[in-house]
Give the backbone structure.
Amino acid sequence: MAGNVSQSEADYTCPVCCDIFKDPVLLLCGHSFCKYCLKEWWRQSRLQACPVCKEIFPMAQPPRNLALRNLSDTLRRERGQRATSGSKELCSLHSERLKLFCQDDQQLICVICRDAQKHKKHNCVPVDEAAADLRTKLRVELMHLKSKLGSFKAQKVNCDKMARHIKLQAQQTERTIGEEFQKLYRFLRAEEAARLDAVRKEATLKSEAMNIRIVNLDAEISSLADKIQTIDKEIKAEDYSFMLNVKSTLERSKCKLSEPETPVGALIDEAKHQGKLLFAVWMKMKSIIKYTPVTLDPNTSGPQLILSENLSHLSESKRAHRLPNNPEREGLFTVLCHESFSSGKHSWDVEVDGTWAAGVATRTKHKTSPRVWGIYAYGSNDYLFELTTDKSLDSISRDILPKKVRVQLDYDQGLLSFFDLDRKALVHIIKHTFRDPVFPYFNATVKILPVDVSVRIRQPT
């Protein structure tokens, strides 16, 4: 093999296999070898040394020689081209020019090959005709590839937009979460201060009352001690002096003070301040916390809509927002809720104004219009219509258009009902057998109303 290697290829020949390098690696001594050749050499010699200079290689794996690999691959391709350039137009069997193309075997053949048993029944055409047909076919495929490339580039642009939007979403969400928790912190700090102030006020009042009580007791104790000392002195006097003052002494010995009593409620009412503390604060916290049964999903919102920070209020925007073209986004003025329902009964109340729509919809996997069931109103027409059929609800006149609507879904029974909350009247019922999960659906100007939250305390039985 070494004798067949040209002088230009000598520098790119492995010393082990005497052929152009394949996946070469470099030893510390400076010699390079094919990775497989070196591995086999080490396996057979059982010594991890250089096959040329016998220097021991201390590392576990030798590094790849990328520069030598690129040069070797180029040289190998050139050698292959040289080997075939002289005979590429001649048949290797008959030494005739390859003028035909066998469409069955997809190979070039000569006129003798065409009459041979192997290709006799095959469809053979001239090379120029086959080349023209194949070029046409390749041009079509090239057009498909270019179209595919355009699709991938468009997808790349959209993904770049989505990546920027994700960062913006994270910033906005973090800010909103921080603001919401600040509300709770402010409430808790104010509640803590109020309760500490109540304890301190009670402690001050009861301490002052107890101090006054102590001062009065000290005065009474001093008075009684003086009286006892005086009477004791009178008792120890001579009989004449004692009897001379006995009447006044007896009067002084009588105590007109009532028996001292410990006042009730003198101590701080710890049970009032500490009992059920967290529960009482939590119950009071309900005044600042609003609960809505459904939540608007910003990822489905159209670019012509504005969503409030708490994701409960929807309104039209004067200009379109630059939003990523993600699959969940449905239309310019529509939005779905985050919650989905596939069984049971559910309801939510909304406040509407001007142009609006409310109902339920299925979420599509591809960019096709979702299936929607609901009602809608145009501010200019002052009439209600059904979304599915686009028919006017003649039973509702323009004078009694609802301002607050309750949407009630009975998924299992296939009923979607709409009620006017102000008039407490049924507006419309849609009957449909739902088979897929449905999402609350809104359009244009809608505000989801919060519901009252109640706490039930269950006593142990």
Observations:
- Residues 1-7 have pLDDT under 50 and may be disordered.
- The first strand starts at residue 24 and ends at 26.
- The first helix runs from residue 7 to 10.
- The radius of gyration is 49 Å.
